[in-house]
């Protein structure tokens, strides 16, 4: 059997490690990563190897040659352009035999899989292609695979969100392939196994199998994974070739070394050829010091990786750092966790490199300098930028003006040069500071900036879409923690940017490969002057304004001291609505309040409505102008789910046969309401972005998450509290009903919820176990797994996207029954999180 080793990877996320070498040539302890793969192939009697190359091909060809010195026969295929994971293999077809299967393996992952067992499994199943699968703690960045009892692939999800995860078993990129399978791959263009080939095979019902491999596998895609791979190899977690000669407890060497008698070495440690360790040096493993490196007196090395030909000066301290080839770290300099020092770099005496700093090759750092961000473009030691609420961080700790400037440059770099970006904020001074950092980064990438100052988020979204801007950003103080600032990015339609666009921003940010505009292309910064007017015109057009004016409504509105107070009063005045305003002065110091203050505010609103006695309803808006909280005309503070059901009932009355979009975790009362009016309910994942995308489909009359967020696509398919107020007034006026009457006609419903803590590494396993246990019953997998029970009851178990926990939601005929179901299934999740599926 032949093997195709895909070694064309650029490894851009590993820069600067991969700026001067291709990713498969990264040293992992004693040899390049590709060397470990070739050794594994030989161990399983695979000695004829085709290596596909694209990025820096001569580095690999010069090092390995024809493979004779390793006991293998290597042929090379060079791609003139990137052909993708499947296209690369198709390009190697002339060097493969047409009468036997071949192995495909990545040259930039570290593994000790039993390839012989994989090949035997493939033959036994008469498979066309067999994937090697592996169980991981965090499956979000991989292709998640579900297989049946025979190992046949039943479902393939490429890089799913937590709500879509149904297993912790992922595709490793190692395949056994029958030669006839190559006919499924078009020649001469980029083709990906996961995006094209496998989905097509599944659709055709072809024999695609998955073999769950045991052993070790690490896809080295980030610095932390590179460091972990080195540590795991040193700690003996892989069954690969010996690391050289053992010269002490947990200490290996691949040649002669010189170690001072008073040096202290605490393994595991690998020392390359001719390494010199001088007096007073202390090394705490896992640590790798490669060939011809000198550690001078009293240097302290802690969990560091040092490439060949480096000098580490007297008293230098390296804590979790990576030092590339031919670097000189002078006396008493310090490098902290996550630091990467590129090839041929000189660090001056007593210089300090703060955590996460990356230095590109050929740099020189002055003596005594403190480096807080990377040279040249900057970086931040974060694994990901985006969470559920956009880019989030503690202000001036995680989220600084410097980071915001680099984030602005990253966002601008993925947009067309010369495009316009809107920037908006809430009134607090912290978002104002971060917003100005964003503004400074965007023009550097050649983008124009329109500063909206402080507008409600829905107004900013509508304005961005209306003027044809390429996108926008809103900076706000978190409503959950006044120390935290959130940055939301929106696209040209006003929706939140997609996860794919978030990944593109993250790639630009972490690669530190920003577009730099020439002087004449630097963007222009200006203020937008017609924001409220543009929104007002669209708002009034989307409503039945005459019906509202004729009704002569009176309401109480709590503006929460937020920018909605600058827009909504004029709209309501135009609609002839009498308003009793509360907290109508914008106050930056009251943007973020405690839960107790929020509850007290709602109670006060209900008291005022009841005391007045002649108002149609009370409304409280959130700070961003997105969510609304309702009090009916009798002064009852409506629970959010009840308020949303009441608005849905009104909308379905006004539009018989219409479709409403509802989050997956909400009561089935919405289906019962839809049945009354021949309407339809479309469920969406429990995520505002998913709800907005579903509402943008064209046939929805409204959408809600059951928590006070509403979308009325007549204006725009985004969460908009101002529009929700207008639509509610229109529906009440046109139907001549009171909100309390609508609530009284709602069918009874009972929902109970529970949150269950679960370690991150257990979440994928828990979902796999749940799918195995309940897959044979009636269930849905829109977001997590929803299992239908007896007597029209159901339970939804959903992993949280940002926290180490699960959400359990249950509905039943009584509240007690719903609570019992939530408790039972919450207990099940707790047990699964602490054990394997078989226990």
- Number-wise, the strands total 55
Number of domains: 5
Number of helices: 21
| CATH class placement of the largest domain | Alpha Beta
CATH superfamily of the largest domain: Spore Coat Polysaccharide Biosynthesis Protein SpsA, Chain A
Strand content: 25-35%
End-to-end CA span: 39 Å
Q: Architecture of the largest domain, CATH level 2? A: Alpha-Beta Complex
State the CATH topology of the largest domain: Spore Coat Polysaccharide Biosynthesis Protein SpsA, Chain A
- Which structural class do you get from the secondary structure elements? alpha/beta
Percent helix, as a range, is 25-40%
Explained architecture:
With 839 residues, this protein is α/β, with parallel strands linked by helices. It has five domains: 2-219, Spore Coat Polysaccharide Biosynthesis Protein SpsA, Chain A; 244-371, UDP N-Acetylglucosamine Acyltransferase, domain 1 (3 Solenoid); 386-529, Alpha-D-Glucose-1,6-Bisphosphate, Chain A, domain 3 (3-Layer(aba) Sandwich), CATH 3.40.120; 534-744, Alpha-D-Glucose-1,6-Bisphosphate, subunit A, domain 3 (Alpha-D-Glucose-1,6-Bisphosphate, Chain A, domain 3, 3-Layer(aba) Sandwich); 750-833, TATA-Binding Protein, CATH 3.30.310. 29% of the residues lie in helices and 26% in strands. It contains 21 helices and 55 strands. An eight-stranded mixed sheet has the order 14-15-18-21-24-27-30-33, covered by helices on one side. A hairpin with a 2-residue loop joins strand 36 (386-387) and strand 37. Helix 12 (545-551) crosses helix 18 (721-735), helix 15 runs parallel beside helix 16 and helix 15 (640-654) crosses helix 18. The chain is globular. Residues 377-383 have low confidence and may be disordered.
């Amino acid at each position: 059997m032949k093997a195709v080793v895909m070694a064309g990877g650029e490894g851009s996320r590993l820069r600067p490690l991969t700026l001067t070498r291709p990713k498969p040539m990264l040293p992992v302890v004693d040899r390049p990563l590709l060397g470990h793969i070739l050794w594994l192939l030989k161990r399983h009697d695979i000695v004829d190897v085709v290596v596909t190359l694209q990025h820096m091909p001569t580095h690999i060809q010069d090092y390995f040659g024809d493979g004779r010195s390793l006991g293998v026969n290597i042929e090379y295929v060079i791609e003139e352009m990137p052909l993708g994971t499947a296209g690369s293999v198709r390009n190697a077809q002339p060097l493969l035999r047409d009468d036997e299967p071949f192995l495909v393996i990545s040259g930039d992952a570290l593994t000790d899989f039993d390839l012989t067992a994989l090949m035997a499994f493939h033959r036994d199943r008469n498979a066309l292609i067999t994937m090697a699968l592996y169980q991981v703690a965090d499956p979000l960045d991989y292709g998640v695979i579900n297989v049946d009892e025979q190992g046949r692939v039943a479902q393939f999800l490429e890089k799913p969100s937590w709500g879509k995860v149904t297993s912790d078993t992922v595709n490793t990129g190692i395949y056994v392939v029958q030669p006839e399978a190559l006919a499924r791959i078009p020649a001469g263009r980029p083709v990906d196994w996961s995006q094209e080939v496998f989905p097509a095979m599944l659709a055709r019902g072809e024999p695609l199998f998955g073999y769950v491999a045991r052993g070790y596998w690490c896809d080295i895609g980030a610095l932390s994974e590179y460091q972990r791979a080195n540590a795991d190899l040193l700690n003996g977690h892989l069954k690969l070739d010996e690391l050289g000669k053992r010269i002490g407890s947990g200490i290996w060497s691949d040649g002669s070394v010189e170690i001072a008698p008073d040096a202290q070495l605490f393994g595991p440690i690998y020392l390359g050829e001719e390494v010199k360790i001088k007096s007073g040096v202390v090394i705490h493993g896992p640590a790798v010091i490669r060939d011809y490196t000198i550690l001078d007196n009293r240097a302290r090395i802690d969990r560091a990786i040092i490439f060949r030909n480096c000098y580490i000066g007297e008293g230098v301290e390296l804590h979790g750092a990576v030092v590339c080839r031919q670097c000189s770290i002078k006396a008493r300099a310090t490098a902290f966790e996550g630091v990467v020092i590129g090839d041929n770099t000189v660090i001056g005496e007593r210089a300090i490199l703060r955590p996460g700093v990356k230095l590109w090759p050929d740099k020189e750092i002055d003596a005594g300098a403190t480096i807080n961000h990377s040279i040249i473009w900057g970086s931040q030691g974060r694994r990901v930028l985006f969470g559920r609420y956009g880019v989030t961080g503690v202000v001036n700790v995680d989220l600084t003006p410097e980071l915001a400037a680099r984030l602005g440059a990253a966002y601008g770099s993925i947009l067309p040069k010369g495009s316009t970006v809107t920037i908006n904020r809430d009134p607090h001074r912290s978002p104002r500071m971060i917003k100005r950092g964003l503004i400074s980064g965007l023009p550097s990438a050649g983008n124009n900036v329109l500063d909206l100052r402080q507008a409600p988020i829905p107004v900013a979204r509508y304005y961005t879409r209306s003027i044809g801007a390429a996108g926008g950003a809103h900076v706000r103080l978190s409503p959950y923690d006044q120390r935290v600032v959130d940055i939301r990015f929106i696209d040209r339609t006003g929706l939140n940017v997609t996860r794919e666009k978030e990944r593109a921003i993250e790639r630009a940010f972490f690669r530190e490969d920003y577009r730099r505009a020439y002087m004449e292309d630097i963007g222009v910064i200006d203020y937008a002057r017609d924001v409220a007017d543009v929104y007002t015109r669209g708002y009034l057009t989307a409503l039945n304004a005459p019906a509202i004016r004729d009704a002569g409504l009176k309401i109480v509105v709590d503006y929460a001291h937020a920018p909605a107070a600058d827009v909504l009063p004029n709209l309501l005045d135009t609609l002839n609505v009498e308003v009793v305003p509360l907290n109508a002065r914008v106050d930056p110091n009251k943007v973020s309040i405690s839960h107790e203050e929020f509850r007290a505010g709602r109670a006060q609103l209900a008291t005022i409505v009841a005391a007045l006695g002649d108002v149609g309803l009370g409304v409280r808006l959130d700070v961003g102008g997105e969510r609304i909280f309702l009090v009916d005309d009798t002064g009852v503070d409506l629970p959010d789910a009840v308020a949303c059901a009441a608005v849905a009932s009104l909308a379905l009355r006004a539009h018989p046969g219409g479709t409403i979009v509802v989050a997956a975790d909400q009561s089935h009362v919405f289906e019962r309401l839809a049945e009354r009016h021949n309407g339809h309910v479309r469920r969406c994942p429990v995520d505002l972005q998913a709800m907005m995308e579903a509402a943008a489909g064209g046939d929805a009359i409204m959408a809600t998450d059951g928590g006070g967020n509403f979308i009325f696509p007549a204006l725009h398919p985004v969460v908009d509290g101002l529009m929700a107020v207008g639509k509610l007034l229109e529906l009440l006026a046109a139907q001549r009903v009171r909100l309390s009457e609508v609530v009284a006609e709602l069918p009874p419903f009972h929902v109970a919820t529970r949150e269950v803590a679960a370690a991150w590494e257990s979440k994928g396993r828990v979902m796999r176990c749940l799918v195995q246990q309940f897959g044979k019953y009636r269930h849905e997998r829109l977001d997590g797994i929803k299992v239908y029970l007896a007597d029209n009851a159901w339970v939804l178990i959903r992993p949280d996207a940002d926290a180490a926990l699960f959400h359990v939601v249950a509905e039943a005929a009584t509240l007690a029954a719903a609570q019992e179901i939530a408790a039972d299934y919450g207990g099940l999740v707790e047990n699964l999180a602490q054990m394997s599926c078989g226990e």
